[in-house]
Design brief:
Shape: flat
Largest sheet: 3 strands, antiparallel
Strand order of the largest sheet: 1-2-3
Helix content: 55-70%
Order of helices and strands: EHHEEHH
Strand content: 5-15%
Radius of gyration: 40 Å
Oligomer: single chain
Number of strands: 3
Distance between the termini: 118 Å
């Protein structure tokens, strides 16, 4: 087969100088290994136990109020004894902040409890009124008016 003017023969093969060149890329270099960081804990178990028991006693003595400050002291100790390549961690939380967050959650749960109780009571009350009206053979509006009249008389 003879190539045409472009250098391509009818069988699809390329001949001569007009053959397209394909750039073959070399194998990419291997990725560099990630640096290895050394994690070191240099705390003492005895000190950790002392902190734990102190926090436990103070938490019981204050009926749980000291729990947040004890948690902060424990985290400060643990984080200050942990280092990565010589750089130490530092815990900057405060017990008052944790206690304030706890009180906010507690207040939210209290509001939710009151609202759900009111809704549940109103649903049950309407159910009782409906049953009473059905038993007496009157409409709910008539029964409500009768109950309102009883309330104003007393």
């Amino acid at each position: 087969m003879s190539p045409d003017a472009d250098g391509q023969a009818s069988d699809g093969q390329w001949y001569g100088e007009l053959a397209p060149t394909v750039a073959i890329s070399p194998v990419p270099p291997p990725l560099p290994l990630l640096p290895r960081y050394e994690l070191v804990y240099d705390g003492r178990l005895r000190t950790l136990y002392q902190l734990f028991f102190r926090n436990l006693l103070l938490t019981f003595a204050t009926c749980g109020v000291y729990y947040f400050w004890g948690k902060v002291r424990l985290r400060q100790y643990l984080w200050s004894r942990l280092s990565v390549d010589g750089y130490r961690f530092e815990f900057r939380g405060r017990g008052g902040e944790m206690f304030k967050g706890f009180l906010m959650i507690l207040a939210g749960l209290a509001v939710w409890g009151v609202v759900s109780t009111v809704i549940e009571f109103s649903i049950e009350f309407n159910d009782y009124v409906s049953r009473a009206a059905l038993a007496l053979g009157v409409t709910r509006r008539t029964l409500y008016a009768w109950l309102r009249d009883l309330e104003t008389q007393s």
